[in-house]
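notes to self, project folder thing:

trying the whole complex as one job this time. last attempt i did each chain seperately and stitching them together was a nightmare. two parts in total, labels are on each line so i dont mix them up again. if this works i'll redo the older ones the same way
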Amino acid sequence: MSARVAVTVFPGTNSEDETLRLLRDVGCDAELVHWSRADSLSQFDAYVLPGGFAYEDRIRAGAIAAHDRMMDDVIAGAQAGKLVLGICNGAQVLLEAGLVPGTGPVRRPTAAFTHNSPVPHFVCRHVYVKLAIDPSRCAITASLPSDALIPAWAAHGEGRLAATPERLAEIESGGHLAFVYARANGRVDDAAVPNGSALRCAGLTNREGNVLAIMPHAERDAWNFNHPDRREGDDVLAPSGGAALFRAFAQALKR
Amino acid sequence: LLKTEQTPPKGLALRPEEIARIRERLGREPSIVELHAFDAQWSEHCSYKSSRRHLKKLPTAGENVIVGPGEDAGVVYLGEHNGERYCVVIAHESHNHPSQVVPFEGAATGVGGIVRDVLCMGAEVIGLADCLRFGDVSDLESHQTYVARSVVDGIGAYGNAIGVPNIAGDAYFHEGFNENCLVNVIALGLVKENEIIHSRAPQGSAGWDLVLVGKATDASGFGGASFASLTLDSQAEEANKAAVQVPDPFLKNVIMRATYRVFALLRERKITAGFKDLGAGGIMGCSAELCASGGYGAEIDLDKVNLALPDLPPEVIAVGEAQERLIWVLPPEITPEVLGIYNDEFTLPQIAYNARAVPIGKVTERKQYVLRHHGETVMDVPIEFLTQPIESDEPAGTAASARTKPRPEGRDAIDLCSREPLYRRYDAVVRGTTVLARGRADAGVIAPIPGSRLGIALGVAGDPLLSPAAMATAKFAVTEAVCRVVAGGARPVALTDCLNFGNPQKADHYKEFVDAVEGLRAAANTFGLPFVSGNVSFYNESSHGNPVPASPIVGCVGVIDDISKVLTPAFKQAGSLLITIGPFSDSIDVLLDAMERGSVRSCTIVGMGGIEMALARMSVAAAEEGRSLGADADVSGPPVGFIVELAKGAQLEGATQLGLVIDEPTIPWGEGRIDVDRLRAAWSYPLAEVYP
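result (full assembly):
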């Protein structure tokens, strides 16, 4: 039997449909699980937390959802080694739940994705993210090439990684910095960063490498028609670069 | 019997002659609830009493029109995919006064309202656009700059949270809007033709349930319809704030998703229901129009309404405009399951205080509109009398032929510069269906059906500074909106309008409205396109009685059979021939044929700023796509129509040769030439201070 993937829907989630569509397209047996129908959650083999504004981003993005009953099962699953992928708001929830970088107790975050800088406004911008760890360091990236450059859309008001200098040093030295922002040519510099994120961080993984939190939406650059740098002649309905991350997730599920 | 009122309560917009008419028809004094109900229902906002006779002149029919004006939104045919016929739902609305008084909430509520108009046609909401007219923002500390910033934040906060991409829009800045900004919003939906839900009680629905869904009713928005039908008065500003509704995008996000589930349930059970959103006139306005348009009456028990505050007076429950509410007309056997979806599966009561779905009354065979409260009848009127089309007299006096104050010669940087600092605060790509995000081309394009090549283009227009003559402004708005869609590679199929004018009781203000409708009519007929939805906003004037610049704002929806054929303004290749072609119906046909054959490499409209600005946009767009190209061209031609970059060897009938794309990033500018990088910096700078 193939691994079953739950796509969690909190009150305020808004990217569940396109996330589900892409997961199914790359061959995952995925379904939506709503907050009021979460009893079955522990029976799933992997979890994807999609984007949105769970619980209206009250207190701080992801802070309330991290304490939702659904997260009991996601946290237990992550601790048991199940794969967990959080995108945008889902990534914020994983940080608030303490699953990534996972350097402190559960639900006691050691880092947060918080208000963009220098201007604390929502920003929607096409970006690229570059793999910043050895692919095998994280189960979900294991099948990606070591120079993987993934197109995606940043669309968030709270995407700046913030932590104390000691915690940031720990993130770097512990191999938690999974993805950094880059330009289309792969060059990593401050101009590529849409939100002032520390370490130019776009994504983080945990010590065990089974949890990945990534801010930009690769699922919104899933098909060639989504992709602003589309080449003439590319089939518009064929998968584009953003789908690579999801294919890697599906690949990881088979191991 | 009803408790009646000898003296009408303060704050009503009803005129004495209207109250006399009500008294005569009822044969008694109206009750206080009835007075408030008629006040809302017969307000300009609900009744279109000053505009209806002119709006009737607009073309509304066409082979692609599935639902024309009259319901909450228009519907046009999109195309077929996997044997199913898909349609686009289009709704257009203003939220000007609320946005001036409480900018963040007022603008957000505008988005919330238009989304419900699309939702209640049985559609998934797939796109948003906003057309904004703000005051002079050169002083960053001024109130009008505060309004301009807060409106954008309000629109972003709402649209982003509910997860609908913002795909098109425009913004103008002019002192004529200092005291009265304009916030017009368009929403698009997707629905299969055989799954459209109408805003009326279906045939045979006597005895069916009226189920109220959403936010608990509070005192917010009480008098909102009348508020929209009066001129803003700064002294009454505090009182007006109470008439502005409070948006809750978090709750709306959940209501939308729950409603999609209800759609699926109704499809599965093959039930035809009625569905309508609550806007002006609250529970009363919505339920009365739902039942009257089906040929029925209604009986509603106001005690069943879920309230946010105890002891609200019955007139506030009946006509208050608390946001995020809709009413279903459902056969009683399905009601428990629908309540279960909203209240249990999507847990509305836990999402917002006392939010829920609750049956509040019944559709009746008897054509009376009856409200009960605490066991007493508080309203009992013939439903058709309440909802009938009413008309007000044309204003007396002669109209000044044109405005005395001329519009500015030439354009400032703020008119011409990039709107990106503004729209990058909006989510352009949620849902994963965006083909051309705002700013990429003259129209936004989405591919809303998974696995299908069908695309929808949306272009908006309405330059308020173009001409002091409302008719010319209106004609140009239609032409520009149509041309924008064509420049994106789409075939225009339908129009939508929002008409923003001054006081309809003043002859000169009213004449601008009448002229604009004539301009819309004439231009739409030229292109053979119908208006399928629209909105009128009057009383947009300053405290000194000056109307805002005449602002007919037009949206055009286009269809693309294959999204691989979308076009952007970005130059593609050095050596390509550049031509201009006029913005006329026959030249558009020539251009669309050429696009179909693959003869067009890039395309843009020549609008504000003329040919130079159009070449600037084409070269800057190329730079943004990583190509360093410019143009050698004669820029002395008229500032209308399209600039087209032709594929090698292609020709266009009726075109005028303009020049060539060159592999040097400069374009002609004034007497000399300008570097594209310099243009790019100048283009992105002016608004960056307003929207850092």
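what i see at first glance: Chain B has 22 helices and 26 strands.
need to look closer tmrw
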